[in-house]
Design brief:
The structure is a homopentamer.
Chain A: E1 2-9, E2 12-13, H1 21-28, E3 34-40, H2 44-54, H3 58-65, E4 72-75, E5 81-91, E6 96-106, E7 110-117, H4 123-130, H5 133-136, H6 141-175, H7 181-209, H8 218-283, H9 292-295, H10 299-320
Parallel strand pairs in A: 3-7
Antiparallel strand pairs in A: 1-2, 1-3, 4-5, 5-6, 6-7
Helix pairs in contact in A: 1-2, 4-6, 6-7, 6-8, 7-8, 8-10
Chain lengths: ~325, ~325, ~325, ~325, ~325
Amino acid sequence: MIVDCAQYREGRRAQDAPLSVDAAAALCTLDEGFVWMGIVDPAPDELEHVKERFGLHELAVEDAQNFHLRPKIEKYDDDIYFVVLRTAQDDLELDRLVFGEVSMFIGPRFVITVRQGTASDLHPARLRLERRPELLAEGPISVLWAVLDQIVDDYAPVVEGLERDIEQIEASVFSGESAPTERIYKLRREATDFYRAVHPLLGPLNALENGAYPEIGRGLRQYFRDVNDHAKLVNEEVLAQRDLLATILQANMAVITVEQNDVVRKISGWAAIVAVPTFIASLYGMNFEHMPETDWKYGYVFVVALMIAIGAALYAFLRRINWL
Amino acid sequence: MIVDCAQYREGRRAQDAPLSVDAAAALCTLDEGFVWMGIVDPAPDELEHVKERFGLHELAVEDAQNFHLRPKIEKYDDDIYFVVLRTAQDDLELDRLVFGEVSMFIGPRFVITVRQGTASDLHPARLRLERRPELLAEGPISVLWAVLDQIVDDYAPVVEGLERDIEQIEASVFSGESAPTERIYKLRREATDFYRAVHPLLGPLNALENGAYPEIGRGLRQYFRDVNDHAKLVNEEVLAQRDLLATILQANMAVITVEQNDVVRKISGWAAIVAVPTFIASLYGMNFEHMPETDWKYGYVFVVALMIAIGAALYAFLRRINWL
Amino acid sequence: MIVDCAQYREGRRAQDAPLSVDAAAALCTLDEGFVWMGIVDPAPDELEHVKERFGLHELAVEDAQNFHLRPKIEKYDDDIYFVVLRTAQDDLELDRLVFGEVSMFIGPRFVITVRQGTASDLHPARLRLERRPELLAEGPISVLWAVLDQIVDDYAPVVEGLERDIEQIEASVFSGESAPTERIYKLRREATDFYRAVHPLLGPLNALENGAYPEIGRGLRQYFRDVNDHAKLVNEEVLAQRDLLATILQANMAVITVEQNDVVRKISGWAAIVAVPTFIASLYGMNFEHMPETDWKYGYVFVVALMIAIGAALYAFLRRINWL
Amino acid sequence: MIVDCAQYREGRRAQDAPLSVDAAAALCTLDEGFVWMGIVDPAPDELEHVKERFGLHELAVEDAQNFHLRPKIEKYDDDIYFVVLRTAQDDLELDRLVFGEVSMFIGPRFVITVRQGTASDLHPARLRLERRPELLAEGPISVLWAVLDQIVDDYAPVVEGLERDIEQIEASVFSGESAPTERIYKLRREATDFYRAVHPLLGPLNALENGAYPEIGRGLRQYFRDVNDHAKLVNEEVLAQRDLLATILQANMAVITVEQNDVVRKISGWAAIVAVPTFIASLYGMNFEHMPETDWKYGYVFVVALMIAIGAALYAFLRRINWL
Amino acid sequence: MIVDCAQYREGRRAQDAPLSVDAAAALCTLDEGFVWMGIVDPAPDELEHVKERFGLHELAVEDAQNFHLRPKIEKYDDDIYFVVLRTAQDDLELDRLVFGEVSMFIGPRFVITVRQGTASDLHPARLRLERRPELLAEGPISVLWAVLDQIVDDYAPVVEGLERDIEQIEASVFSGESAPTERIYKLRREATDFYRAVHPLLGPLNALENGAYPEIGRGLRQYFRDVNDHAKLVNEEVLAQRDLLATILQANMAVITVEQNDVVRKISGWAAIVAVPTFIASLYGMNFEHMPETDWKYGYVFVVALMIAIGAALYAFLRRINWL
């Protein structure tokens, strides 16, 4: 579905209402401005139509229809860039990360953005860019910046969400109230998925920053460097989080084992407190003819008192050595 | 065994019936088109015959007869490429991965593909290529693309199978119903084997994409880039799976230990519930002359009631602290 | 808040009193000397004012206002360097590392340093540089050296603090007195945070040392090499500390388990010492008519003596095999 | 000890009987053919003599006398290559890997091979090369290929031996019959030693393949590429084996712990089956006057039956929850 | 303290008695030979004096006074090399590694070596070099070789010491007599410290070997390659040792846990042997009127025999399943 389509000339939007595919393709033949068409979850024939009108490469169109790709920035021979980006979002309801994909075709006179899955809405990027005519005037490549900038900015809350989850897990591990092994594992899996969305982007972003594509002017390149900086920061943060989660898994194990030690000590302590009086009781349960104590008047009271004294002494001793 | 052999001229298959080795070799001397010969599990003398007629290098022929090689793309001095690829398949009956090998000799006027082991059938690649005359017209190198494309596409179900297995293992680990250590290990071993089939291919595929071989036109190169993209994706997925499996192994360990804690607590709890009444019983088993309770009429009933009360109180307490 | 601002000409400070922003900007238009303005925790409009007067790039100003960035050294087209540095300090009260940020704008005629968070005071760097006119005479880039030098020097006590903490943890782990899993984990997290402050700086420092920026004379470059050396040393030390902490976590686990073994043995030993006499007691509690020993005069004394003897023998034996 | 020495001219061996050092050195001054001298475990003065007659570099001769070196291929200024290779063999008697060393001096007119320790016999390499005059005719460098080829081929059985050992360990770990920690460790150590024999060879082999030494013709280079391929394969296999062994060590740990859980459960189960009847027995051991059951005629039979019933019920229950 | 100082001309020592600083500095202005001054633990003012007379760079002198630096080889603009090396020694008394530092200033006409801490004595290097006039004649840079050679040679006994320690630890872990966790950890820490002394040296040594410094003639370069070879070997050995020690730590853990299993089984076995007879005893301690066995004449003997039989049977059974 085409959600918006407009021509931009001299840094300004030329039409308010969205253009049709054919009208847009016609405008692309002019030697002026460029068209930005935004498509969401396209039907195959829709994309086929766009492909024919804009002369897109079949491999790129195939990729734009697929899902679960690596982020990449490629240039085709006919000077058309094909870009795949992965968006990430913290789905608060499902309490897990959801990923989406944005594909872009960037020709000399057009930009086609294709959103798939739960990809971030690109409308804010369009509005932001429209407010900056000096960047828009740099041509279609400025749209690449606007989209990259938004997607990478949208990574920040994901990193923060992971950070929050890690802090909760730390608290839970070290308070000893529960051993959140499953949660640590799931979070590590999410961090890995997220890392795979971010990391492959760094290579192409470096290429953009370092001027591998001469179409991109020096002024715009500083904006790509800015995006690259943010992506590198996100990448380093996720790497550190993965490392932390691996360490927590080990710390968790140590905490569980220490707790086991405590449990075993506590159990044994109480067992001792019961076992010694039981022994004394069975002692006086023996059927010997000549057991002087059994004939004493206060023998029973004395023995019970002895049991209580021994139990109390053991309890005090075990407390002192921290077994209870 | 030669399973198919035909000459391709101007993007079309020239003969319907398979050619003999000698006829094929003769056609190769012409300055037009190329021959594609498909061999499966060749006998040594069969390969020797092909080697002589097509002038293949002894080292390449030796490799094509061997098994368990690294994937590679080599160029011999006489402009003959020698390619080794590893195919992977999920053998559902054996419930494990099986690997096969495809060797290719690519000369200016011929392509010889040699399948070994449980290598994927290359017939679909041939049919697909025959339906695309514009690629066939690029010469023998287009066959390299067709074969690479099919083999790398065939990796996808393997990755999905590993993914499914990992999800089953996750469920099994965290449900605590069993500790699938052996299965985790076996899967990690498979993932490593698969990684070794895929990873060494990336270097040569990058070389193909980046134009290290000038015979490959720019148009075709975009098709190799597409294959490279898929191979990189598979590679990243397998790497992530290996990492996950290592983490599961650790998580599994933590889950086992937590379960051990639970078992120890449960056992100790029941032991306490039995031990305290046992102590009371042995108390009243003592043979003192003067034990007032033993003379009471309801002494016995009272003591049994006391035991039940203490047992119940212990049970309630242990439930509350989650030991039972 | 502007904390100091002065022009430096021919290696000397030109004014004693701090300049205003406008005065400083005016002096920058002269073809002589440079201005160094120090700002601490700037208000947004303050920075906006500076930006307009000194013609700073919007992206750089945005970064200078943000927090939690990667250290970096960038050059903008208009020959203005933008530098982000992370400072680290051991907060003895909170007993944890605190990080601050210093951003620098370095133009041909000015240096603006912006401190944020608990960043180190830069006044000592200014004083040190003022005492070295021959370096000051190299222009604004000498300020970059002075600030880098101070910040990297300030890393040293942090490394030493981590080292001290590690030694305490080692002592505590191997004395067995407590299992400081949480402390190991927290320290490893700190070391990771610190590593992330230091590591990204190495790339730009190498570029400075190797002459990537021709503005920096050969003489000054040796001073940057010196800073780079120190940063590399800090980086290697932190890496080694992270590795050590991971190893301690494992060693800790082994120590805990050995201790568990000891506990289990000790408990079982005492259990045996109690269980055997208890068995003997219950033996003589049997109600057989014909139990000769029960009729002996010293039967009881003999049996109690037997119990003590067996208990003592068991105790001696268990001591000998180190179970008690 | 010189084991063989002959001159090769136009691809053929010139003398049947081994030459003396002096005769060989004299032949090296001619402008034709080359001499191949094979030495085994040389005495220092023997090597000194060879050094003087062939003008070898003192550092190279020193290395040829030492043991436990890194594999390397060096070129000295006087166009003499010095090569150190490590051979590996599975000593079936000692059931461990033994390593040997082969040093080579390769000049324009001579090759001197020095075997040390349990290095592979090089005679087969000589015979194989003598059967290929076209390679021999390429000069002394063809001997480097022949020796490299044999040594790298001899790595294959070592890899297979490690593989067999790993499979045995896997079977042993997962059958639970024993915990082969020591064997896993020893094997990992061997794999590491072997890796260190193979890995440093890859760099020089790559240099040989990529034409870093112009003396080596393009035809011969394909033979070095073949050796390189095999070495890379061995290297990847050993790396994968090391990784597997690390994983087995962890899996082993998990299996041991699961087994521990089983043991604890089994013990506790039987303890319960004994403890409950013991409690009942002590109940009826109490000395109350009024215990109606004790007066019943079949009280005893009933209680014993109750004990058996409870024991059986517990047994059935524990079986059902897999504790027994 | 200056320990030796002499001028070397045409490969020979010119004076027998040590020169003073001023005399040495004067000789450096001549266009012939070079001066080698050896200083040990210099006082600050001593170094200040040397710095002024030889025109050393302040940064280099600062580094030479510091301790705990990274090994490095730097060149200052005035053609003076500054070298920092770390020496390592096995202190047999303290049973740990001690590190020292050697700094070198190498100008066109002088070499100043500064030893600090427990750095190796450099006198042997001087004597060895004096015996090789042809190397001495290459100028001051030959001293760099002689010092590097000695220091790297001195690493060998350290590696061997670590190897011996590892073998002792292996024996101790697998004999099960003790769990040397602390010793493993301490050794790993030492190996890491040693690695940090050796590893940073490889980069500069490679640069020396590959001719990055044109002052070094091709002949001498082969000597630096020799040192580089040894350093690379040491580096690989230490890396392998660190890896081994990490594996031992894990193997240690597995051995401890297996031992724990054994202990638990042994304890439970003996508990069973005591528990069953105890149950029988309490059975016959019941106070039922009608317990036929209690009236039998040999009831008591029979029951005791039964207990012994059951105990023996249990013992035999538990031995057979390896629990005792």
